[in-house]
Design brief:
The complex is a heterodimer of chains A (127) and B (133). Chain A has 127 residues and is an all-alpha fold. Chain A contains five helices and no strands. Chain A is elongated. Chain B has a single domain, classed as 3 helical TM bundles of succinate and fumarate reductases (Up-down Bundle), CATH 1.20.1300.10. Classes of the chains: A mainly alpha (127), B mainly alpha (133). Chains A and B meet through α2, α3, α4 and α5 of A and α2, α3, α4 and α5 of B. Chain B: Belongs to the cytochrome b560 family.
Chain lengths: 127, 133
C-alpha cells in the first residue's frame, strides 16, 4: 500500500469496476422476482387443491411452465447476487472468499439446471 | 497521514453493533438480509424438492405432501412464506430508497416499521386465504 498518491492509498482496498453492474443486476432480477413470485403465489391460491393431478395439469399449461422456468432463473440469479454480497461482507480471507464464491456458483448453476429440467419434464409429460 | 505509513493494522475501525442504539432502519435492514438468506437456502431448496417430488410421480409427491402437512413441515412453510413477504416489503422499500426518497428520519422510521408489519400481515392473510378457502 503506497503512501504518496491518492490512487496508491486506495489501491487494493475497494471494489474493482463491477459494482454498478452488480447493483443493477440485483434490481433487474428483483423486479423479475416481484412479478413472477406474486404470479406464483396467486396461482397457488387459485388452485382448487394441491392434488398430484391438479398440479400436473397446471404444469402442462405453457403459461405455467414458462412462468416457472423464468421464476427459477430470476430467483436463483437474485439469490446468487445476494449471497455473493453476504460472503464478501463476512469472509475477509481472500482464499476462503474465493472458495465460498466458487462453491456458490457451482451450487446455483446446478440448482437452476435441476429446476429447469424438472419444469421441462412436467410440462412435456412422460409420466 | 502518519497512520498510513504504519500499514494495514493501524487503520481506524468503525464502531460495530454494540455501539449503536437499535432503530427501525437497523431492524428492517438485518431482517432483509436474514429473510433473503432464508429464502435463498430454505425457500429455493424447498421449491426444488417440490419440483423433484412432482417429477418423481404420484408416490413421491404424496410423500412430500405428507411431510409438508406435519407440524414441522408447516413451521418450515410458514417460515418460508414470512421470509418471502418480509423480503418483498423491505425490497419495495429499497426501491423507494433507490430513487433517493425516504431518508428523512421520521419517514424512514415509519416506512421501516410499516414494511416489517406489512410483511407479517401479508403472511397471515396468505395462510388465511389458503386454509379458509
Amino acid at each position: 500500500m503506497g503512501n504518496g498518491t491518492s490512487i496508491g492509498r486506495v489501491r487494493g482496498l475497494g471494489s474493482s469496476h463491477n459494482g454498478a453492474h452488480h447493483w443493477l443486476i440485483q434490481r433487474f432480477t428483483a423486479i423479475g422476482n416481484l412479478v413472477l413470485t406474486v404470479w406464483f403465489a396467486v396461482s397457488l391460491l387459485l388452485l382448487p387443491d394441491f392434488a398430484y393431478t391438479t398440479l400436473r395439469d397446471w404444469f402442462a399449461s405453457p403459461v405455467s411452465a414458462s412462468g416457472m422456468a423464468l421464476l427459477i432463473i430470476s430467483t436463483f440469479w437474485h439469490a446468487r447476487v445476494g449471497l455473493q454480497v453476504v460472503i464478501e461482507d463476512y469472509l475477509h480471507d481472500h482464499g476462503n472468499k474465493f472458495a465460498a464464491l466458487a462453491a456458490l456458483n457451482l451450487v446455483v448453476f446446478g440448482a437452476v439446471a435441476f429446476g429447469l429440467f424438472c419444469v421441462a419434464r412436467l410440462a412435456l409429460g412422460a409420466a | 497521514m502518519a497512520q498510513a505509513s504504519t500499514g494495514r493494522k493501524a487503520r481506524p475501525l468503525s464502531p460495530h453493533l454494540q455501539i449503536w442504539r437499535w432503530g427501525p432502519a437497523m431492524a428492517v435492514s438485518i431482517l432483509h438480509r436474514v429473510s433473503g438468506n432464508g429464502l435463498a437456502v430454505v425457500g429455493l431448496g424447498a421449491l426444488l424438492c417440490w419440483l423433484g417430488a412432482l417429477v418423481g410421480g404420484e408416490a413421491s409427491y404424496a410423500n412430500f405432501a405428507a411431510q409438508a402437512g406435519t407440524w414441522y413441515g408447516r413451521i418450515v412453510l410458514i417460515g418460508i412464506s414470512w421470509a418471502f413477504f418480509n423480503h418483498l416489503c423491505s425490497g419495495l422499500r429499497h426501491f423507494v430508497l433507490d430513487i433517493g426518497a425516504g431518508f428523512e428520519v421520521k419517514s424512514n422510521n415509519i416506512w421501516s416499521i410499516v414494511s416489517i408489519v406489512l410483511g407479517a400481515l401479508l403472511t397471515a392473510a396468505f395462510w388465511a386465504v389458503l386454509l379458509l378457502r
